[in-house]
Amino acid sequence: MKSARQLALAAAEAMDAKKADNVVVFDLRRHTLVTDYFVIGSAETMVQIRAVSDGVAEALEEAGARLLGREGHARARWILLDFGPVVVHIFGPEARRLYNLERLWADAPIVER
């Protein structure tokens, strides 16, 4: 299996491949024990949010990661994919503005891609 950093970057690439907007990878290793990386992106429609979610799940499972949990798929305003050391958030535009995780984790470094 790939390292957590490699998985986070693979998730970001999968999001880019599905045309997600504003994809950002945060290195949270020094900020929380919950996960090592957050990958955050957004998509315009429910259909696209689901497509991005499915693309990320497929890419990371092919890389050897196991999906531990998926939240929000039915409503598709915000889907969270938990791979343990990597947590992926796919937001609709309104939900991304509302929850503003970038502000919440502003002191965490952004991983260059």
How does this structure look, described?
By secondary structure, the protein is α+β, with helices and mostly antiparallel strands. It has one domain (4-104): Beta Polymerase, domain 2. It has four helices and five strands. It has helices at residues 4-17, 46-62, 93-99, 101-104, and strands at 21-27, 37-42, 69-71, 78-82, 86-91. Strands 1-2-5-4-3 form a five-stranded mixed beta sheet. The longest helix is centred in the middle third of the chain and has 17 residues, at 46-62. It is globular, with a radius of gyration of 13 Å. The mean pLDDT is 94.
What labels describe this entry?
Beta Polymerase, domain 2, 4 helices, globular, 113 residues, single chain, five-stranded mixed sheet
Per CATH, the architecture is 2-Layer Sandwich
**Which structural class should the secondary elements be placed in?**
alpha+beta
Strand order of the largest sheet: 1-2-5-4-3
The total strand number stands at 5
Q: What percentage of residues falls in helices of 4 or more residues?
A: 25-40%
What is the molecular shape?
globular
CATH topology name, in short, is Beta Polymerase, domain 2
What's the CATH H-level homologous superfamily?
Beta Polymerase, domain 2
**Helix-strand string:** HEEHEEEHH
State the CATH class: Alpha Beta
Instruction: Provide the number of structural domains.
Output: 1
Q: Averaging pLDDT over every residue, what do you get?
A: 94
What is the structure about, briefly put?
By secondary structure, this protein is α+β, with helices and mostly antiparallel strands.
